[in-house]
Amino acid sequence: MVRHIVCFRLKDNSAKNVEKAAEVLRSMEGKVPQIQSMEVGVDFLHSPRSYDLILQVALKDEQALTDYQQDPYHCDVVKPHMHSVRESSVSVDYHF
Question: How confident is the model at residue 47 (pLDDT cuts 50, 70, 90)?
Answer without folding.
Answer: very high
